[in-house]
Design a protein that fits this description.
The complex is a heterodimer of chains A (about 130) and B (about 240). Chain A is mostly helical and about 130 residues long. In chain A, about 70% of the residues lie in helices and about 5% in strands. In chain B, about 40% of the residues are buried. The chains are: A mainly alpha (about 130), B alpha+beta (about 240).
Chain lengths: ~130, ~240
C-alpha cells in the first residue's frame, strides 16, 4: 500500500471554533490598547518637558470625547488582561506544602491583593486618594 | 435504543485526492460512546472504515479524534451528550493516514527528544530500591498521568501554526522527570524544553489543559518550565556566583 498522508490546511477559522480561542485572542488583542496607552503617556511626558503650553494642550486633548472613549476601552482591556492572567497564576506557581498544594484561590487571591496594594500606593502617591 | 447520525471524515490514500465526509445512521443504546458507534458501523455497515482504538476505558490513549470539532477520546464521548448529527474527524494538526487514523511520527520523535526517563542524580542505591516520600511523589505525580493521546496537540493552535513546537504532552512529560527527586537530568532536558521551539513557543492559550482527559494540566507544566528557565537564565547571566 502506498502511503499518501493528507495534511489538512490550517485556516483562521480556529479562532471561532470554541469560545476559549476567542477569549485568548481578546487577551492577546488587549496588548494593543495597553501599548497605545503607554505610548500616550510617553508622549505626555514629552509635552510636560516642553513647557506649560504644550502640557495644557495635552491635558485638553485628554478631555476630548475620543480620548475618553479610548481610555474606557483601554481600561476594560487592561482589567480583562489582568484578571485572565491572575486567574492563570495558580498553574504557573503551584505551591506545595507537605503532601498537598495550596488551593488555587489562595494563589490567585494573593495576586489580586498585591494588585490592590500596589494600585492604592500609586493612587496615593498620585494624590487621587 | 435511539438513532444517531454520524458524519465521519473519510480519506483513502490510494484513491482520494482529499478527504470527504460520509454519513452513517446508527441504532445506538443509551450508554454508548462514539467509539461504540464507530465499531457498530465497522461491524455492520462499512468494514472499510479505519480508526485506532484499544482499551475502551480511557487508558490507552489510542482513540483520540475530533468530535464536533473538539478533541475527545472516542471511548469517553457519550452519544447522549450530543444533539443532531455528530461530526467525527481525525485529530487536527496531524496528517491523515487514512480515515480517522493520523500520522503520529512527529509526536513520537518529540517525546524521545525530551528524554522522558530517569537520568539518575546519584548512583543507584546499592541495595533495594530508590526511596521517595509521599510529598516527593506528589510533586510530579499529576504529570505521570499522561496517556500520550495527543488531544492537547489537536487543541493547541500554536502547534497547528508552528509544527516545530515541541508541544504540550512532550513538555509535560519532560517536566515530570525534572520534578522527580531521583532525577538529575534537568540540564540535559533544558536544551529541548527551555528552547525557543520548546516552552517559549507557547503563548498560554490553555486549551491543552482544558481538553486533557486525564487532567494532567500540560499548560501548567509549560508555565512552570518557563519560570525555571527564566530563573536559570538570570542566575547564569546576572548572578553566576549562585550557580555551582
Amino acid at each position: 500500500m502506498n502511503r499518501n498522508p493528507y495534511l489538512r490546511p490550517i485556516t483562521s477559522e480556529w479562532i471561532f471554533r470554541h469560545p476559549r480561542y476567542l477569549r485568548y485572542m481578546v487577551r492577546e488583542f488587549s496588548c494593543l490598547f495597553i501599548g497605545g496607552w503607554t505610548l500616550l503617556m510617553v508622549w505626555g511626558l514629552k509635552q510636560l518637558a516642553e513647557g506649560p503650553a504644550a502640557w495644557a494642550a495635552f491635558l485638553e486633548l485628554l478631555r476630548s470625547p475620543a480620548s475618553i472613549v479610548f481610555h474606557l476601552l483601554a481600561l476594560a482591556f487592561a482589567i480583562y488582561h489582568s484578571v485572565t492572567w491572575f486567574n492563570l497564576t495558580p498553574k504557573a506557581l503551584p505551591l506545595q506544602v507537605g503532601e498537598g498544594f495550596v488551593p488555587d484561590w489562595v494563589i490567585a487571591g494573593a495576586h489580586y491583593a498585591a494588585w490592590v496594594v500596589v494600585s492604592s500606593c500609586v493612587l496615593i502617591l498620585g494624590g487621587a486618594l | 435504543m435511539r438513532q444517531v447520525e454520524l458524519e465521519v471524515l473519510r480519506y483513502h490514500p490510494e484513491t482520494d485526492r482529499e478527504p470527504h465526509f460520509q454519513r452513517y445512521r446508527v441504532e445506538c443504546q443509551e450508554e454508548w460512546v462514539v467509539l461504540d458507534a464507530l465499531n457498530h458501523v465497522k461491524e455492520t455497515l462499512d468494514p472499510t472504515l479505519s480508526y485506532r482504538w484499544s482499551c475502551h476505558m480511557a487508558v490507552c490513549g489510542s482513540c483520540g479524534m475530533m468530535v464536533n470539532g473538539e478533541p475527545k477520546l472516542a471511548c469517553k464521548a457519550f452519544l447522549r451528550d450530543y444533539q443532531g448529527v455528530i461530526r467525527v474527524e481525525p485529530l487536527r494538526h496531524f496528517p491523515v493516514e487514512r480515515d480517522l487514523v493520523t500520522v503520529i511520527d512527529d509526536f513520537v520523535a518529540k517525546l524521545a527528544r525530551v528524554k522522558p526517563y530517569l537520568i539518575p542524580k546519584d548512583p543507584p542505591p546499592e541495595a533495594g530500591e530508590y526511596r521517595q516520600t509521599p510529598a516527593q511523589l506528589k510533586r510530579y505525580k499529576q504529570f505521570t498521568l499522561c496517556i500520550n493521546c495527543m488531544l492537547c496537540y489537536a487543541a493547541c493552535p500554536e502547534y497547528g501554526l508552528i509544527p516545530q513546537y515541541l508541544g504540550p504532552a512532550a513538555i509535560a512529560l519532560g517536566h515530570r522527570w525534572n520534578r522527580d527527586s531521583r532525577d538529575g537530568g534537568r540540564e540535559a532536558r533544558g536544551e529541548e524544553l527551555a528552547a525557543k521551539e520548546g516552552v517559549w513557543e507557547c503563548s498560554f492559550v490553555g486549551a491543552c489543559s482544558e481538553v486533557c482527559p486525564e487532567h494532567v494540566d500540560p499548560a501548567g507544566a509549560i508555565q512552570q518550565v518557563k519560570i525555571e528557565s527564566t530563573v536559570d537564565w538570570y542566575q547564569e547571566h546576572l548572578m553566576p556566583w549562585l550557580k555551582k
